C-alpha cells in the first residue's frame, strides 16, 4: 500500500475513527489525540498489515488500543456532563435521548453497541478488534439492547 492509498483509506475511515474514539475517551481533545496517534502508528506499522482488505478493522483495533492507553494515563473517564457540554453533535430531537442512553452504558458494552449498530461491524470483526470471543460480543450486545430499552422506557 502506498502513501496515497493509505491517505485515501484513512480519510474514508475518519468518521468511524472519530465515533469509536469518542465513545471510549469522551473528551474531544483526547479523542483527537487518539485518532492522530492511531494514524501515525498505523503508518509506521503498515508493513505488518497482512491483508489490505482488513485495513479499516486493523486501524480501528490500533485506535481502540490508543484510546485505552489514554484513558489509563488519565486515570478516569470524563464525566457525562462534561461530554454533553463538549459535544459538537447537533441535536435534532429523539437522537439526543438515544445518545445519552448509549453514553451512560458501561464502557465495554458501549463499545460493542457503537461498533455494531453505529459503525456496522459484524460480531466476528468486533471480537477481533476488541480481542474478545464472539460469544462475549453477542452477550454484550444483548445486555446493551436490554439496558438501552430499560433506559429509554424509563424516560417515557
Question: What structural keywords apply?
Answer:
single chain, 156 residues, mainly alpha
Tell me about this structure:
The chain has 156 residues and is an all-alpha fold. The chain has helices at 3-25, 28-44, 55-74, 80-86, 95-103, 107-118, 123-130, 134-154. The longest helix has 23 residues, at 3-25. The protein is globular, with a radius of gyration of 16 Å. The chain starts with a helix and ends with a helix. The model has no long low-confidence stretch (mean pLDDT 84).
Radius of gyration: 16 Å
Number of helices, where a helix is a run of at least 4 consecutive DSSP H or I residues: 8
Shape, principal axes of CA atoms: globular
The separation of the N and C termini measures 51 Å
Q: Percentage of helical residues?
A: over 70%
pLDDT < 50 stretches: none
Give the rounded overall mean pLDDT. Answer: 84
N-to-C SSE string, H for helix and E for strand: HHHHHHHH
Percentage of residues in strands? under 5%
Q: What class, by secondary structure content?
A: mainly alpha
Oligomer state equals single chain
Number of strands: 0
Q: Give the biggest beta sheet.
A: none
